[in-house]
Specification:
6 helices; mainly alpha; globular; 3 strands
Length: about 100
């Protein structure tokens, strides 16, 4: 018999990082999402991969390091890209 918690985990939405490992989203998809956020930090609905959507603004604001880094006017572009990429990889996208 399967524990209810374990059974519900099988249906839990995957993170973008897990989808990346499964090749449902590509490195180009993630790079495009990072680029989109850096151009417009208020962007919400971003479509990518095989029918996934994330709220980029919410993903970054919910990730402390990404939020602090992108709010720091002295942060380098390389550091901001790394922080935003991390936030995107950890968010759970919506299947559309």
């Amino acid at each position: 018999m399967t524990e209810p918690y374990l059974a519900s985990m099988a249906y839990a939405p995957q993170t973008t990082g897990e989808l990346f490992k499964a090749k449902a989203v590509t490195d180009s998809d993630i790079a495009a999402a990072v680029d989109a956020f850096l151009v417009d930090p208020s962007i919400s609905g971003f479509l990518f991969g095989e029918g996934y959507r994330i709220d980029l603004a919410e993903a970054v604001s919910a990730h402390e390091w990404a939020f602090v880094t992108t709010s720091n006017k002295d942060a380098t572009e390389h550091l901001m890209r790394a922080a935003v990429r991390t936030a995107i990889l950890l968010v759970r996208p919506e299947k559309v």
